């Protein structure tokens, strides 16, 4: 039996964040094709008008077409689902630290605006993501962020930091004008029985192939 996580902010549209049990498109929007992209930790967001034959390279999608289910996969990075209830536009973004730092959040919002959305109407939900207590980074990682980002880092062991990816994603959303944000606050690393975690699997020498699927779409 699937365990589907949902956000109250997105109750108006079919959506869900999977656990390690997974989900199928029919669990969320029966009859809808699941549309995905070839994710590469980029800042790129695409507008989906028709189902593509070969998934293009990008890390976010938006659409105003009903009957399609947008899906992105993650295993520590932040899955972010978006909805403008007035413009009837939805989006899904894979926001790892590289993508978030590079602008995938802003690019997703810009693509939604191109379809008639407005930032102050958009609702965003952040699904299962590695939490700060579980996300140790080194000085080289920290150096890629500026002084204004210091609030997202807490000093850890010598020459290491704990990075708050969910808070950083919230910050980027707020800076772009989004005020309705729901962070489900589910730590992929700590939730070993519930979620896949690339970092946890790497640390344990386990298979790193497992992913969560996060989906959103519009009803016909």
Order of helices and strands: EEHEEEEEEHHEEHEEHEHE
Measured by DSSP, the beta-strand proportion falls in 25-35%
Average pLDDT score: 97
Under CATH, the topology can be stated as: CNF1/YfiH-like putative cysteine hydrolases
Low-confidence stretches: none
Helix content: 10-25%
Largest sheet: 6 strands, mixed
What integer value in Å does the Rg equal? 17 Å
GO molecular function: copper ion binding; hydrolase activity; S-methyl-5-thioadenosine phosphorylase activity
Organism: Erythrobacter mangrovi
Pfam families: Cu-oxidase_4 (PF02578)
Keywords: Hydrolase, Metal-binding, Transferase, Zinc
Summarize the structure in words:
- Belongs to the purine nucleoside phosphorylase YfiH/LACC1 family.
- Pfam families: Cu-oxidase_4 (PF02578).
- This is Purine nucleoside phosphorylase.
- InterPro entries: Cu_polyphenol_OxRdtase, Cu_polyphenol_OxRdtase_sf, Cytotoxic_necrot_fac-like_cat.
- GO terms for molecular function: copper ion binding; hydrolase activity; S-methyl-5-thioadenosine phosphorylase activity.
- With 220 residues, the chain is an alpha+beta fold.
- It has one domain: CNF1/YfiH-like putative cysteine hydrolases, CATH 3.60.140.
- Helix content is 20%, strand content 27%.
- It has 6 helices and 14 strands.
- It has helices at residues 25-28, 97-102, 104-114, 139-142, 165-175, 198-204, and strands at 4-5, 15-18, 34-35, 45-47, 60-63, 69-74, 78-84, 89-95, 123-126, 136-138, 153-155, 160-163, 180-183, 212-217.
- A 6-stranded mixed beta sheet has the order 4-5-8-7-9-13. Strands 1-2-14-6-3 form a 5-stranded mixed beta sheet, with no helix packed on it. Strands 10-12-11 form a 3-stranded antiparallel beta sheet.
- The chain is globular, with a radius of gyration of 17 Å.
